[in-house]
Structure formats: C-alpha cells, structure tokens
Amino acid sequence: MSSIYTGVVVFLLLFAALLQAVDEEFSGTWRFSLLVALCYASLVVLKTSYALVVPIHFLILCIAWFSVQRSVNWHVCFRIIYIPVCAVLLAMPWFLLHGDKFYGLLQFGNVNAIKGVLSVGEATLPRWAPFSMEPLFYGHQVVMLQYTMLALFLAFSAVYFSKDLLMSKYKRIVSISISLLGSISFLLMMQFFSPKMMGYDPTLRYVFSFLVPSACFCLLLLFRSQQLIKGVSIYQLLMRGFACLLLLSFVPSLVARVEQFYLVGNTMGVPGFKSARYINFCEWQQSDLLASKVFDLQGMIPLDESVLAWTLLGHFLDYRRHQIVDVDPAGLTNPWLGFPFNSNTSEKCEFIRSEVGGYIIWQYGGSGIRSAASLEEMAGHDFPRRRAFASRTLIFTQFLQELRADSNRTELLYDDGVICLMRFR
Questions:
Q1: Packing angle between helix 169-188 and helix 200-223, nearest 10 degrees?
Q2: How far is it, in rounded angstroms, from Cα 283 to Cα 51?
Q3: Which of 9, 113, 329, 368 has its CA 20 to 30 A from that of 169?
C-alpha cells in the first residue's frame, strides 16, 4: 500500500480518536492523548510532506479550543499539551536515524540546492487556476474545480459547526479542526508549495490523504447534526445539497477506476487506460514469464548481498533474499540524497559501493522507460522540481550506461536488451 493510501487510513484513525474523546468529554484516561500522538508520529514517519500538515492540524485544534472554551480547564489543557510531547517521544527513534532528512524540507523547492539541475534560465510558472474546468492528468476527467469546491465545502462546514449551539463544545472544537485542516492545508499546498513541486496536478496526490478523510468526517457530522431536533434550516439544506452534488460529481471517476481495475488490474487513474498500448504494458508488467526472468536474475546474486535496483519490475523482487535499495527519478531529487551528480565516474562508483553494495539491477528498455529525448525536453519544464527530476535522471542513467559499457569497472552478469545485472569488480 502506498504512503498516500496509508496516510488516508491514519488520518481517519486520527479523526476517529478525536471524536471518541468527544464522546467521553475528554474525561477518560490518557489513552486519547497517546492515540492522537501516535497518529501524529506515524504521519511524520510515514511521509515527510505530512510533517507540514501535522502541526497545522494541532495549531487549528488549539485555536478552536481557545475560541470555543469560555473558561480554562487545566485538566484538558494538560492532555492537549501532552499530545506533541508524546508524539516527539514516539518519533524520536526515527528522528535519530533520519533526522537529517528534515533539512530537505528547509531546502524544498530550492533548485540551487539541487545539484545537477540543467540550466534553462528563468521560468515563468503558470498560475494556479482553482476554478479550472480542464481535465486533470490523473483521475479520469476530474477537474480542479471539484477539489476547490471540496475545500470550500470544508470551510463552510467549519462555519456551520461553529454556529451549531446544540453541538457540545468539545464536538465543535474537533469538528472545526477537521474541517479547517482540509481547507487550509489545501490552499497552502496548492498556492505556495505546488509551484516548487511537480505542478498543480501532481500536487493533488499529496492533498488527497487529508482532504478526502476531512470531507468524509464532515459529511458524517453534517448529516448527524442535532439541529434536526429544531428543524432543518435553509443553510443546512444548502450544505447538504452542496455535499450531495459534490459526491455525484466524482461518480464518473469512480466508475472509470472500477472499469480500469477489471480491465488492466490497477487503479492508477492515468488517461488512456483503454488504449492497446497501455493494456499491453500492464499485461507485460504482470506476466508470469517476466516474473520468472526477474526471479532467475535475482538468483544470480549471492544471499545477503546488497543490491541497487532501477526498474519498473520491483514488485517481482524478493526483498527477503537481499537488502534492495530502490532508486527512481523522484527519489533522485531528494535534497538529502548525497549522490555526487557533478563528480566523475570514479567518485560515483565509490559512492554506490560504499552506500549500497556491489550489485546493480538496471532496467533500461521495455515499456514505460523514458527516452533520453523526453528527459531532455522535461529538463526545460516550467516547474523547478520537474527540471531536477529530468536532469538528475539523465545524469544517473548515463552513469549506469557507462558502467554497463565499461568492463574494467563492472562485470556484466546478465543482459537481455531490457534489463541487466552488473557487479563491481
């Protein structure tokens, strides 16, 4: 399961824990604070981009708390303060091992800090169009307007919950924090961070993990509102109608994803999934013959050896047999990587041997492999991270090509024109 879908599950657990604490009016044991802290720590450890969302939610929770409370309840205050303290302690082992990676968040989007980026001059970034009706690359005809409306629904929900006097003060605090997390984080990610990432369309993948759970819980809270006791207001009818229309707008995308799953066995949401080219690619990538080939290739590597793998066929590798370091274009853009992109071949070889090991699996052919021409074209893209993505991939694959051709540095153990296995001499 990807870190995005796992993130959805953890956010759902976080919101459920908060609402459970509401039912107990924060009078239970410390298990509430511990569970929320565990969710926070899990999100930060799971994906570094969530390290931006977690403090936003906690800050919103605190602001909502002090805006709704009329008097200070020190018993509950200590429980809330206990959350970040406990979260840091739970994540401390990970911080000690990988804390240097958070330096990358400070360098996020700084192209000058990403060595190996081809110089293309100053680029004029396209402006975010929140109400665009242009179909997005991912999602089967979903448009940006739908996500913007979803964020607006969450913002209006926060206003509604703040005015719902029949709701307990604790439930109002939690409901407001869930609503504002989705709307505020969506605005920050799309307006300020997406220009430094891959663009507005791919950034939605990072927004999805918290926007959808927030919307789900707000829908449940809205339809279970106790204001029904006093009758249904016009504002409540509008909110529910708005929510239903939003849900219906995503039905075609859902139907297309189900159809894609039965057709090609995945739900990646890419356009043209019905094309013969994409169907052939999926069949090739999941074929038993290819699985057998990868199994035999990995069998040529002695047990307990470390392996660097650049391949689209990682799902066929046996990760119990070897310590495998997966490398992909997105990973090459991490500021904390440390690979000497601007150094000579000898220094690059030394880095691989010292940090990874003596064996390299490299898939350089077959379906789904970007050509050098397409990477060179992407290196001139408007978005800085896409430039880094393409230029570093070019540098790294050219390095692997040099190793494959240099018999003095490596021994070619296997090569079928699509994938090869090399060993350093």
A1: 160
A2: 37
A3: 9
Owner of token pair 């350093």: 424
For residues 159, 162, 164 and 167, what is the CA-based torsion angle, rounded to 10 degrees? Answer: 140
Q: What is the pLDDT of residues 352-380, one digit of tens each?
A: 988 888 899 999 988 778 888 888 888 87
Q: Among 2.70.50, 3.90.1200, 3.40.50, 2.60.40, what is the CATH number of 288-424?
A: 3.40.50
pLDDT per position as a tens digit, 30-73: 677 788 889 999 998 888 778 888 988 898 888 877 776 666 66
Size of the chain in residues: 425
Q: Where are the alpha helices (DSSP H) in 24-48?
A: 31-46
Asked whether 214 and 177 are in contact (CB, 8 A), the reply is no
Largest CA distance in the chain: 83
Note whether 396 and 332 are within 8 A (CB). Answer: yes
8 token code pair: 């959805």
Q: Which amino acid is at 120?
A: V
Domain boundaries, the chain: 3-244, 288-424
CA distance 110 to 55: 22
